Amino acid sequence: MKPSILCQWGVIILLISGCSTAGYYAQSVKGQMEIWQGSRPISSVLEDPDVSEQVKDKLELALEIRRFAAEELHLPDNDSYTKFVDLERPYMVWSVFAAPELSLEPVEWCFLVVGCVNYRGYFKKESAQEFADQIVGQGFDVYVGGVPAYSTLGWFDDPLPNTVLKYSKSDFAGLIFHELAHQVAFAKGDTVFNESFATTVENVGVERWLKASGDASEIANYRLSKKRDQQVIDLILDYRAQIEKAYSTNTSDTEKRHVKKQLIAELKRDYEQITKDWQGYVGYKYWFEQPINNAKLISIATYNELIPAFEKLLEDHGGDLKSFYKSVVELAEQPKSLRRQALATLNRGQYTF
User: Fold this and answer.
1) By the number of CB atoms within 10 A of the CB, which of 43, 51, 85, 216 ranks highest?
2) Between 283 and 222, whose confidence is greater?
3) How confident is the model at residue 155 (pLDDT cuts 50, 70, 90)?
4) Helix, strand and coil percent figures for the chain, each rounded to 5
5) Residue 152: per-residue pLDDT
């Protein structure tokens, strides 16, 4: 499956949070400092004769996307993604998700500024895996996923890492739109709200950017990709709901484990079924070939659970992004229970701003 674009909140959290070890602080601060120290203005990189033309073309595209984001999507117009950093590794960070063996409630780690988040990030894969192994030893389901980019929520100017240059044009633009959206609105302690909002802006932004470019083939490819994405997401969320229902029954833990194993096998089988019409496309094969557990299911739900509500909210604003953002900021400032209630009623037309 295409890597998810998670948001590791950066050094701000790491310096003031109160729930992690000194070792976690140290690796996080060191990793963030290395990113800043290695960053160079894209304008400078474009003049460097040692940089390949392929990289330069992608960086010029990034500047074009950045301008579109500010001028047409009304996303923050600052120096984020106007610098480049070559980390010489495939991902910026690795995030660890965890959940109890028989529950789809994520384990959360809490910080003073951003509240509780349902993942924990490491700048080295080995460190992430070491922490994951500790959690597994405590009886939890765990998933470790590579993260190609993240946002510091506007506290700092985030650079564009080499880890995203392999993306297609549309995915590349979507990543920049997604991360900039996190600078627009942020709800403390509500990861699903934050990621679903950013993904909504990503999807809308790419559609508008491609239409503006007039590239019919790119638009067709993007829409086919999103159709496949949605098929897989719908499938995963459907089975997630079935598994969650099984956990809520009064049956024994042994029976719950059996049903969990059975449903995950059926999920993989149904995935194979829907891919028969994909003409050999195998973009999600690796995700399904690896073990699937509660933590892995949570990692998908985090990005998609509230998208329909945000899409309805944008529709209610006539597609006007400025007024949409204003309403999202208002929602982000509400207590989580009221915010979720408002989003839940959007599709029924019972909530007005």
Assistant:
1) 85
2) 222
3) confident
4) 60, 10, 35
5) 85
Question: What is the pLDDT at residue 271?
Answer: 95
- Lookup: tokens for 143: 């998933």
pTM across the whole model = 0.86
Q: DSSP alpha helices (H): ranges in the chain?
A: 11-16, 22-38, 42-46, 53-71, 125-136, 169-181, 191-213, 216-247, 253-274, 285-289, 294-304, 307-316, 321-332, 336-346
Phi, psi of 141 (to 5 degrees): -80, 135
SS3 assignment, position 189: coil
Confidence of residue 256 (pLDDT cuts 50, 70, 90): very high
Residues in CB range of 172: below 8 A, 6 or more apart? 58, 61, 62, 65, 164, 165
Contact 256, 249 (CB under 8 A): yes
Residue 121 backbone dihedrals phi, psi, to 5 degrees: -105, 150
For CA atoms 5, 7, 8, 11, give the dihedral sign.
positive
Say which residue the tokens 């080295």 belong to: 124
pLDDT surpasses 70 at 16: no
Question: Can you tell me the distance from the alpha carbon of 16 to that of 110, in angstroms, rounded to the nearest whole number?
Answer: 11
Tell me the one-letter amino acid at 348: R
Q: CB burial class (10 A; 0-12, 13-18, 19+) of residue 204?
A: buried
- ∠ CA 332-185-231, nearest 5°, is 90
Report which of 188, 289, 220, 206 is spatially closest to residue 5, judged by C-alpha positions.
Answer: 206
Q: What are phi and psi of 261, to 5 degrees?
A: -60, -40
First-to-final CA distance of the chain: 37
